[in-house]
Amino acid sequence: MNEWFELAQEKDEKDTLAKYKEEFYLGEAVHYMDGNSLGLMSRPAEQSLLDVMEDWRQHGIDGWTRGDRPWFYMSEKLGEMMAHLVGAGAHEVLATNSTTMNIHQTVRTLYQPTDERYKIMVDDLNFPSDIYAVQSILDDYGYPDGMVKVPSAEGHTLSTDAIIDRMEEDVAMILLPSVLYRSGQVMEMKKLTEKAHEKGILIGFDLCHSIGSVPHSLKEWDVDFAMWCTYKHLNGGPGSVGGLYVHEKHHDLGVSLKGWFGNNKQTQFDMVHTFDQAHDISQYQVGTPHIFSMAPLLGSLTMFQEVGMTNIRMKSLELTDFMMNMIEAELEGHEVEIVTPRAHEHRGGHILIGHPKAAGINAALKSKGVIPDFRAPSYVRIAPVALYNSFEDVYHTVMILKEIMDERLYEQFDNQRGVIA
């Protein structure tokens, strides 16, 4: 028997999280390795959505305040459930809007430019939506040249020192990813925050690719703000509501995008035309919350509360260690490059591999029941997720990849990405 397979079985037997795999809908003969893009449906998430629909059936409009899951307070309830994932107080975390909307809301609220200090620092590797949002804010404020992009030396990772070196007196704010969406590099958030504050610069992080796979201590690190999606590692479902953190020291500012759900809940239904801003994170809401887009999180997040981020992170690192070791041993000579950093402190929950025929390899993997995703121009992302992937899943994924490379099966597919990659 293959020694890798024996090792995978041995690791699975010792895995204290193995039972959670039964809570997810995995499909037949499928090795799902795309949880960093869209997490799978779980039975608790399905049930909580059905429960909220039942509340609608039973209570009608009174579902806003009646039942076990009153809709009026659901955004705050989910914020409380997510607070331990980011290391913050419940009054500082909220489920609301989308990631991009939360960038607009937080940056527009906290950004206080002057003619001497007006630039916003981002990075050359960030997700495009973050860049679009920041540029539109700078345009609206009359500083179209105000974006500072920290470059990557080799196109995959960022240097902490290079970022710190560019923290000059003209920078008012910094927005960076916590984990780079391509390479999976974890940023040194604590150090970056300390250095930014020494220079009088506000700093925030996009946690989309770290929330639910990497622990955070945002309050302890004194991070000013953060936002994230909930449909990747948190398994909230396609288009599920975004998450938001704003340090309590900023709660006295007037939010930029005002709407009736950012109003003090005690006076919200007075319906006066003077905005009575809520005194906690609730103020960052805008319009009526999307209840059915939040409901699956009520179930999904219960698993994170049970397991704890320390255990999730430990298994995640073991899974990616195992996968990287197998790839290096079994795919030697096939021009497969592991881009993701090896050091645990610099690695998130997914692996990026490079090859000139990456789009064809991605298609070939899918044809054989492995679900990864492709990133242009020549990379495949693979994410073994702690709650529903086993070490045996990793073993089969790498052995299928080896077969594809050995037999050049990727040549049967066009080396072009689909409309959605």
TrEMBL record:
Its EC number is 3.7.1.3. It catalyses: 3-hydroxy-L-kynurenine + H2O = 3-hydroxyanthranilate + L-alanine + H(+); L-kynurenine + H2O = anthranilate + L-alanine + H(+). One of its GO terms (molecular function) is pyridoxal phosphate binding. Pyridoxal 5'-phosphate binds at residues 99-100, 127-130, 206, 209, 231, 260, 288. The keyword Hydrolase applies. Signal peptide: none annotated. The modification N6-(pyridoxal phosphate)lysine is found at residue 232. It comes from the Bacteria. One of its GO terms (biological process) is anthranilate metabolic process. Keywords: Hydrolase, Pyridine nucleotide biosynthesis, Pyridoxal phosphate. Its cofactor is pyridoxal 5'-phosphate. Pathway: Cofactor biosynthesis; NAD(+) biosynthesis; quinolinate from L-kynurenine: step 2/3; Amino-acid degradation; L-kynurenine degradation; L-alanine and anthranilate from L-kynurenine: step 1/1. Gene3D superfamilies: Aspartate Aminotransferase, domain 1, Type I PLP-dependent aspartate aminotransferase-like (Major domain). InterPro entries: Kynureninase, PyrdxlP-dep_Trfase, PyrdxlP-dep_Trfase_major, PyrdxlP-dep_Trfase_small. One of its GO terms (cellular component) is cytoplasm. Belongs to the kynureninase family. Homodimer. Catalyzes the cleavage of L-kynurenine (L-Kyn) and L-3-hydroxykynurenine (L-3OHKyn) into anthranilic acid (AA) and 3-hydroxyanthranilic acid (3-OHAA), respectively. This is Kynureninase. It comes from Salinicoccus hispanicus.
